[in-house]
Design brief:
Shape: globular
Helix content: 55-70%
Mean pLDDT: 87
Distance between the termini: 76 Å
Number of domains: 3
Largest sheet: 5 strands, mixed
Length: about 350
């Protein structure tokens, strides 16, 4: 590219950039076509599924049941879509997608579940909302990231059962706590009599919930005992001071027995104990802090473990006492939570029980 004048030559950088972009898009397209021929976005609801092939602007709404899945297969056949070479992208909904996932696994169809917040933040500025529009946006999300998406692993029935049992146990524990609080308030406010109907009903509810919690815990224990890998990891992490049975159950369930997180730091980010910086330019320099995007229940249970470890573990107690001289309690507790996570992942990786060998320096 030559400019006016006898010897003025402009830089060839723009041409080089254009060629680099062209090569990049060719590589991305090749990678995508190598992985998936078609990407379908699915908006899941309790009764229906909205499925969109965004690239061809094709949409269908089906029932979330076997009848609807048969309609989907006919629709794909009409559009010459080979489901075995397609990737289905859907949101986590907390359970409504499980029936569709079972259909996908029975047909060897690859699928990926993505957090709804991730999809929402990737869309930029949007206006309006409908099930059809959501399925199109999910499909566009999958197409734009086709070169980096990996299909989800098949469902593990043991892990799925553990999560369901733990979730229901949490509900029973909260209900029992609410009944106990109501009973204490009633005893404080009114003169209780043996024939008080409300008190008798509350007491029966508390007793029933306690029995149900024991049944749930027995079933959780049975699932872990019947799986050698789960039982080994359970024994390893409960050997750590502060980690009790509930923390161990939840860690095994949400790490899928330490297979779904590559290291302790990744799991720490998921739980919400890793601080991130918050700076911009020269004027905004705030202290690092943990993100609100975290699994709150896991973090809450880990807080109980950290408090126990700061009392009963000599090494962590000494560490906490040293930091508390200059640091806030919440910050120290957060550090202890991450140390517990590091211990769990390290011991599971080595397949060893925790051995206390701490000695205070003279």
């Amino acid at each position: 590219m030559i400019a006016q004048g006898p010897s003025r030559i402009l830089s060839l950088a723009p041409t080089k950039v254009i060629w680099q972009k062209a090569i990049y898009y060719v590589i991305i397209k090749h990678k995508r076509m190598k992985k998936w021929n078609v990407i379908l976005g699915v908006d899941v609801s309790k009764l229906t599924l909205d499925i969109c092939w965004a690239e061809q602007n094709q949409h269908i709404k089906i029932e979330n049941c076997s009848k609807g899945f048969s309609v989907l297969k006919k629709w794909c056949k009409t559009l010459s879509i080979d489901l075995n070479e397609a990737l289905i992208v859907m949101e986590f909904t907390g359970g409504y997608e499980y029936r569709f996932i079972q259909f996908c696994e029975s047909m060897s169809i690859r699928y990926l579940r993505v957090p709804g917040l991730e999809i929402k933040q990737s869309m930029g500025m949007t206006r309006g909302k409908s099930d059809q529009e959501d399925s199109y946006r999910i499909g566009r999300y999958g197409e734009q990231r086709a070169h980096e998406l990996e299909a989800s692993k098949p469902l593990n029935n043991n892990i799925l059962s553990l999560k369901q049992l733990l979730s229901f146990r949490k509900r029973l524990v909260r209900d029992r706590g609410a009944f106990e609080g109501t009973l204490k308030e009633r005893e404080h406010m009114y003169e209780m009599k043996n024939k008080d109907t409300i008190a008798r009903i509350i007491q029966s509810k508390i007793k029933a919930n306690t029995q149900h919690i024991k049944q749930i815990e027995q079933e959780i224990t049975a699932i872990i005992k019947n799986n050698e890998d789960m039982l080994l990891n359970y024994r390893i992490i409960t050997s750590i001071k502060g980690i009790g049975c509930v923390n161990a159950w939840m860690t095994i369930a949400y790490t899928e027995n330490f297979t779904s997180f590559i290291d302790a730091r990744t799991y720490g980010v998921y739980v919400g104990v890793i601080p991130f910086g918050h700076t911009s330019g020269t004027s905004i320099k705030r202290r690092s802090r943990v993100s609100y995007l975290a699994h709150k229940e896991l973090k809450q249970e880990l807080s109980q473990a950290a408090r126990s470890a700061m009392v009963h573990d000599p090494e962590l107690r000494s560490y906490a006492e040293r930091l508390l001289k200059n640091k806030d309690y919440k910050l120290v507790q957060n550090n202890v939570k991450f140390k517990l996570i590091l211990r769990m992942f390290s011991l599971v990786k080595r397949g060893e029980l925790y051995v206390e060998n701490y000695r205070r320096a003279a």
